[in-house]
């Protein structure tokens, strides 16, 4: 193995870093400038370096490294802004903390903005002056994307979604075969041939999307939703193509990539003529497609967009499905996905549902908007070069779970499920991990 190969095996972006030209850097700085509007510029000039954000970050609380402090990460972005886009930074850079955008700084951007942040937003809601630190770190990631310096595992996930139509690269015939198999299993469970997992049903009220990991590894999640809609007798459908609610463009920082993925769901809604787009138990899928996509696409949706949790809550509250709490007797706790709760506004829906569906519900501490990230968000699960760091910061979540004494951890997000399953094994928690809809399906009275 040559020295270059050894270096690349340790740092998969090393070769690309060494290939950067002055033209590349000029282009990246132009992109940076385009992304900094007046609001973001105000944020970059407003940080008072109070350090209060340190106590909010699961990275810093775990490793104690100053590079993990949110204000430090923000300062990396701020230093480049000052150096190239302020008069003082151009004239007396050393006095103002302005930094050159060179290989050393770019390497630190990669390590901090990708490797020490899950874009969970906890620092932003606890910032003493309300800075949107999460958004600014994503701006930095977008600049790195322009340079081709997104960690390969994360970029590969984006590329697969763009070229194959979903982030797992599932072929259409395989997806249809899986859906048919799930339908057969559901019919057998219910003893009812009318139970369906409908595909491409034109004019259905609900177009239900999925996280492709459900089709690959967690088909019970899809079956649970099918069981709920069968009990409520709702008109719903899945799509044969462009059914992927996930959007890793949120994580690599590319508005262009993100917009393409969200636009596909809009096109599917138009093609099938459905009334409401329903997003699955996927935190970033909800945040991306409910809140961010209209900005990426520069247009409003012409239809309602809801989380499956909002739909299920209405079904319970309206008496269209009935639940028996005694069917779920084990004590359960709830992990709040950052993108769904802190950044998405779906906070009490899952709590209402679980209190109707289980016998014993125990809150984590802290919870709701102040709950800690599981450590798997921000694309961390896809960036294998940071996997040890991801498991280490997950100890905070593992400790939260252990303190509840719960036997089942419920979370409405498949990224969180993947991370929690790893934490369950790594920290020997001895718990089950399930979705909200799985708990509802188990409690259904049919």
Model description:
This protein is mainly α. 54% of the residues lie in helices and 5% in strands. It is globular and about 75 Å long. The strands form two sheets. The protein has a four-stranded parallel beta sheet. The chain has a four-stranded parallel beta sheet with strand order 6-5-7-8, with helices on both faces. The longest helix is centred in the middle third of the chain and has 19 residues, at 172-190. α18 (283-297) links the parallel β3 and β4 (305-307). The model is unreliable at 1-9 (pLDDT under 50). The chain folds into three domains: 3-149, Fumarate Reductase Iron-sulfur Protein, Chain B, domain 2 (Orthogonal Bundle), CATH 1.10.1060; 158-317, no CATH class; 325-443, 3-Layer(aba) Sandwich (Rossmann fold). The N and C termini lie far apart (63 Å).
Number of domains: 3
- Strand residue percentage: 5-15%
Q: What's the overall geometry?
A: globular
Mean pLDDT across every amino acid position: 94
- What characterizes the major β-sheet? 4 strands, parallel
Secondary structure: elements and pairs:
Elements: H1 3-10, H2 14-19, H3 22-35, H4 38-44, H5 58-63, H6 70-85, H7 87-91, H8 93-96, H9 103-114, H10 122-125, H11 133-146, H12 152-164, H13 172-190, E1 206-208, H14 212-217, H15 219-232, E2 236-237, H16 249-252, H17 255-272, E3 276-279, H18 283-297, E4 305-307, H19 308-317, E5 332-334, H20 349-357, E6 361-362, H21 387-393, H22 395-404, E7 408-410, H23 414-426, E8 432-434, H24 436-443
Parallel strand pairs: 1-2, 1-3, 3-4, 5-6, 5-7, 7-8
Helix pairs in contact: 3-11, 6-11, 9-11, 13-15, 15-24, 17-18, 19-20, 20-24
């Amino acid at each position: 193995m040559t020295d270059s190969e050894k270096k690349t095996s340790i740092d998969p972006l090393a070769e690309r870093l060494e290939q950067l030209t002055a033209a590349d850097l000029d282009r990246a700085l132009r992109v940076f400038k385009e992304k900094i509007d007046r609001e973001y510029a105000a944020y970059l000039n407003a940080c008072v370096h109070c350090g209060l954000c340190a106590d909010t970050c699961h990275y810093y609380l775990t490793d104690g490294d100053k590079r993990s402090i949110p204000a430090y990460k923000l300062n990396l972005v701020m230093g480049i802004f000052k150096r190239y886009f302020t008069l003082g930074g151009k004239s007396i850079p050393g006095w103002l903390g302005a930094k050159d955008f060179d290989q050393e700084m770019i390497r630190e951007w990669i390590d901090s903005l990708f490797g020490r942040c899950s874009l969970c937003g906890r620092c932003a809601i606890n910032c003493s002056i309300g800075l949107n630190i999460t958004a600014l770190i994503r701006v930095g990631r977008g600049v790195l994307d322009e340079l081709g310096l997104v960690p390969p595992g994360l970029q590969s996930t984006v590329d697969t979604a763009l070229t194959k139509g979903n982030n797992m690269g599932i072929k259409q015939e395989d997806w249809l075969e899986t859906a048919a198999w799930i339908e057969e299993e559901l019919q057998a469970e219910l003893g009812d041939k009318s139970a369906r997992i409908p595909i491409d049903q034109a004019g259905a009220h609900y177009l239900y999307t999925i996280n492709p990991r459900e089709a690959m590894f967690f088909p019970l999640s899809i079956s649970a939703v099918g069981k709920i809609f069968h009990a409520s007798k709702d008109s719903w459908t899945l799509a044969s193509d462009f059914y992927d609610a996930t959007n890793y463009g949120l994580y690599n920082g590319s508005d262009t990539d993100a917009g393409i993925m969200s636009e596909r769901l809009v096109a599917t809604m138009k093609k099938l003529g459905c009334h409401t787009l329903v997003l699955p138990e996927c935190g970033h899928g909800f945040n991306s497609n409910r809140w961010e996509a209209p900005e990426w696409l520069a247009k409003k949706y012409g239809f309602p967009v809801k989380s499956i949790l909002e739909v299920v809550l209405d079904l319970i509250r309206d008496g269209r499905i009935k639940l028996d709490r005694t069917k779920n007797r084990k004590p359960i706790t709830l992990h709040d996905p950052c993108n769904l709760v802190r950044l998405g506004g779906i906070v009490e829906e899952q709590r209402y549902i679980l209190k109707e569906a289980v016998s014993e519900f125990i809150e984590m501490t802290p919870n709701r908007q102040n709950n800690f990230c599981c450590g798997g968000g921000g694309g961390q699960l896809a960036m294998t070069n940071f996997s040890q760091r991801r498991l280490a910061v997950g100890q905070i979540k593992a400790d939260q779970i252990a303190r509840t004494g719960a036997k089942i951890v419920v979370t409405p997000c498949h990224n969180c499920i993947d991370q929690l399953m790893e934490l369950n094994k790594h920290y020997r928690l001895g718990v089950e991990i399930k979705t909200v809809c799985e708990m509802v399906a188990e409690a259904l009275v049919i």
